[in-house]
Amino acid sequence: MSYEVRRQLNTLRSLGGYKSVNEVLLDLIRHQRMARMDGSLELLRERAKATADVDVDHLVERLNLAPFRV
């Protein structure tokens, strides 16, 4: 790890009130994972809404036209 990176991490540690650089890194990773999960959750909500808007009768008619047994 370079001196500059170490200096920046120590600055984040002291400004954030963390006891160690490891705590800073763990908190950054946790926030990044939470942001990624929030994005996935929003995508799931959009897909669930799109699924809820499907006309079931039309879907059944289309499945009855399928060349295989449903």
Question: Can you tell me about this structure?
Answer:
79% of the residues lie in helices and 0% in strands. The protein has one domain. It has 70 residues and is an all-alpha fold. It is built from three helices and no strands. The mean pLDDT is 88. Helix 1 (3-16) packs across helix 2 (21-52).
Short recap of the structure:
With 70 residues, the chain is mostly helical.
Please describe the topology of this protein.
Elements: H1 3-16, H2 21-52, H3 56-64
Helix pairs in contact: 1-2
Q: How much of the polypeptide forms β-strand, as a percent range?
A: under 5%
Determine the structural class based on helices, strands and strand pairing.
mainly alpha
Mean pLDDT: 88
Count of distinct structural domains: 1
**What's the end-to-end separation, in Å?**
59 Å
Task: State Rg.
Answer: 25 Å
| Number of DSSP strand runs | 0
Largest sheet: none
- Outline the low-pLDDT stretches: none
Q: Name the helicity range.
A: over 70%
Shape: rod-shaped
Total helical segments: 3
Spell out the helices and strands N to C.
HHH
